[in-house]
Amino acid sequence: MTFKPAIWYPIALVLSGINLAAAWFAAQQTEPWHATTHAALALAFGLWAQRLRQGSGGNAQQARLEAIESELSMLRQEQSMLRQELGEAQERLDFTERLLAQGQEVRRVDPQR
Question: How far is it, in rounded angstroms, from Cα 72 to Cα 7?
């Protein structure tokens, strides 16, 4: 048997409401621990209901998160490729600058040509 939040959400809401009413009645009877227990249960069931409601939309959020992670992974790969290409371009530029510098040195040494 699988857990179905769609079924348990209204149950959690009803239990929260019942415990909230019970807390009020217990407070009227001047039983503070009894009222506190029902208030805590009402809060717990209310939070559980909220969690169940958020959980049903969790699949869509999970899919969006996975899509963002996938896109981020692709961007990182592209960044790595661009860094490699930039490194290669810098090496070519350095090589070209060395060749030009050597050509200037040859002209300075032999100005008769």
Answer: 37
